Amino acid sequence: MPFEDELAAALPDQGLVTDPDVLESYRRDRTVWVDPGQPRAAVLPTTTEQVAAAVRIAAAHGVPVLPRGAGSSLAGGATATDGCLVVSLERMDRILGVDADERLAHVEPGVVNADISTASADDGLFYPPDPASQTYATIGGNIATNAGGLCCVKYGVTRDHVERLEVVLADGTVIETGSLTVKGVAGLDLTSLFVGSEGQLGIVTRASLRLRPAPDGAATLVAFFPRLSAAGDAVARVARDGLALSLIEIMDHGTIEAVERLQPMGLDRDAAALMLMQSDAAEPLRTAQIERAVELCDAAGASYTAATSDLDEGEMLLQARRLAGTAVDEVAGMAIHEDVCVPRSKVPELIGRIEDITDRFGIRSATLGHAGDGNLHPTLLVDDDEDGREAGLHAFDAMIGATLDLGGTISGEHGLGSIKGRFLEREVGADNLAVQRSIKRALDPDGVFVAGQWLG
Fold it and tell me: Given pLDDT bands bounded at 50, 70 and 90, which one contains residue 322?
């Protein structure tokens, strides 16, 4: 039976897409500077069995498979290759249950991140990993990239909250990994292996996620700095002091300017940097932590600091950070987003190197990120033409080099996608990469899953 006919039989209810105009929306993600291929078809399964059937059919016909979530990747993680089958999980969007006693949420991969906290709020719980895209990114993609977020400085990243997975392998076999117990060391930790594997080892079709008690409030600090070095010094001081803050974010001058253009908020457009810090500890520790953070920012040379325990005021301050990515995209002819992470003590030096690199290549940049864990997101703002793109990509490579020179990693939370695999051996070494590729061959010997392809 022809490939498309087999798929149509296995996926009823308009679960097969072959119309070129409709397929266009499944070709690319948010990585606008990457040229996508043309998929052969897309399927929109609603059950694990349909996912498994689609994978088996594709494997039998030698058609590569690209898993896809919400398409919010900034690293080309959902960029189609020519002739592939896109398996979109958008219709598998059910929250299967919230177990308040065990503090677990059981979800399908198409569930939007923020909806998990909404569903568990009546039980006094929430799901901590909160990427800036949490209102539209789905949990399947979060698991694939081991996504972090604004609050991961205190609560950790996705891997720290995934207890159990259901996964479709390259031959259509369905396995479960992990357990629902708090402790468990029976066999190898396959759950952690799949988290962050970016769809190269299997397709997650169900996840059990660890929830946490929701904070009863938060205190928020905003601080402006006349120099980036002063903001970096504030980060270092907070880290040395050991404050267990739930959020430490930084935005440079370019990002402040972009946010003010998109939505005027009264930010100091003359400042070199803005920092946001938050504590969600119980009182009186919450107020004490923010008061100490104010002292540390002032000592580092802040030009202005203000703190509030009002939740609405705090959320208004955080809106500047949540709008930053969209605002920066609006400024540029083309925005090339980076995602790198260095030891926290190296944040000031990396920011300085980013400025030097952009000056060298004659382009603009806007840097924001999670300063509390050293994860920065420099965005290169270039003209949307051949010269601008070339300068931007050279600067992109230079920032990768600077990050590795400082003992950092080429991706903190966006993943390698289709744009960073060429740097992986430089970070981990040839022997390490050989081991990773042997795992890929063991789970996917015929190379069915083609997302990113950095495991070969």
Answer: confident
Residue 440: its H or E element: helix 430-443
Angle, alpha carbons 247-248-249 (nearest 5°): 115
Q: Is residue 39 within 8 Å of 51, Cβ to Cβ?
A: no
Domains observed in the chain:
3-88 (3.30.43.10), 95-213 (3.30.465.10), 216-331 (3.30.70.3450), 332-446 (3.30.70.2740)
Q: Which is it for strands 340-341 and 375-382: parallel, antiparallel or unpaired?
A: antiparallel
Torsion of CA 281, 284, 289, 295, to 10 degrees: 160
* CA–CA separation, 113 and 378 (whole Å): 24
Binned at pLDDT 50, 70 and 90, residue 14 comes out as confident
98 Cβ contact list (under 8 Å, min separation 6): 104, 105, 106, 119, 120, 123, 125, 211
d(CA 158, CA 147): 6
Q: How many CB atoms lie within 10 A of CB 48?
A: 18
Q: Per the structure block, which two tokens stand in for 357?
A: 């690199």
Q: How far is CA 52 from the centre of its chain?
A: 26
DSSP labels for 304-371? EEEEE--HHHHHHHHHHHHTHHHHHHHH-SEEEE--EE--GGGHHHHHHHHHHHHHHHT-EEEEEEEG
Write the DSSP symbol of residue 158. Answer: G
Per-residue DSSP letter, 138: B
Which segments of 117-190 are extended strands (E)? 125-126, 162-168, 174-178
Establish whether the linkage from the previous residue to 378 is cis, with ω within 30° of 0. Answer: no
pLDDT over 90 at 32, yes or no: no
**pLDDT over 90 (residue 446):** yes
CA distances from 420 to 248, 379, 439 (A): 26, 15, 19
Percent of the chain with pLDDT over 90: 84
Diameter over CA atoms, the chain: 72
CA 129 to chain centre: 10
What phi and psi values does residue 435 have, to the nearest 5 degrees? -65, -45
DSSP-derived 3-state class of residue 207: strand
Structure tokens at 187: 């066999």
